[in-house]
Amino acid sequence: MSSLSFRFTKPTVQPAPLPPSKIKCHYEEPYLVTRLGRALHHHLTILDPEGSRPIVLVCIGTDRSTGDSLGPLVGTRLTDLDASLTVYGTLSKPVHATNLEDTLMEIEKYHHNPVIIAIDACLGRSESVGSITLAAGALKPGAGVNKSLPQVGDVHFTGIVNVGGYMEFFVLQNTRLGLVWKMANIIAASIQHGIILTNRFHQGATIEQPLQ
After folding, report:
1. Distance, CA of 193 to CA of 103 (rounded, Å)
2. If one looks up domain 23-200 in CATH, what number appears?
3. In the sheet that 55-59 helps form, which strands lie side by side, from edge to edge?
4. pTM of this prediction?
5. pLDDT tens-digit profile of 54-83?
C-alpha cells in the first residue's frame, strides 16, 4: 500500500493597509490643496474601502474668538462649496466646548457608523504658525486651553493659528482673522477635493489625472 502525504499551507493573510503618514505643511505651500486632498482620499478609502459609510464633518470652534473660528469658517465654506455635505459646526451653528458632547450624541443617533473628519484650531511654536496638519485618528479639542473634551474623528485636520504656551485664551482672542480665513479656505478646498476623489474612486473612475 502506497502512502500519501499531504502538505498543508496556511492561507496568505493580506496585512491591513497603513494610513498615510502625518502631513504638516504651511498654508502657502504650492499645490497644497491637491496634496492634502489626495492624502485625505487615501485615509477615506482605507477607513471605508466599500464606500458604505457616511462622511460627517465636525468643525470645532466658536465665532466669538478669531483664533478659535477656524473650524466654523471651514464648516461654513464647505456648506458653500457643496450643500450635500453633512457638516456640524458653522459660523451660524458652531460646535464648541458646551455642545460638543450633545453633537456627538446626535451624530451617533442619525448617522450609522460614520467616517468622521474633525477640524480644529490649535496653538504651537512661533515657527509653526500657519501650518496645517492632516493625520489619522482623533483629535483632542480644547487641549491647548486646558479643557477636557471628548476626542473626535477618524481622521483630522488642525491649523496652528498662533503661538501657544502662555495666556492661551488671550492669544486666541487676538489672532489675526486674515490668517485664519486663508487657512480655512485651504482646509475646506482640500476636504472637498479629497471627497470628490473618494466618490470617483467608489464609482470606479480613474483619479490619476491632475485635478485643479
Report:
1. 25
2. 3.40.50.1450
3. 23-26, 131-136, 155-163, 115-124, 55-59, 86-88
4. 0.87
5. 999 999 999 999 999 999 999 999 999 999
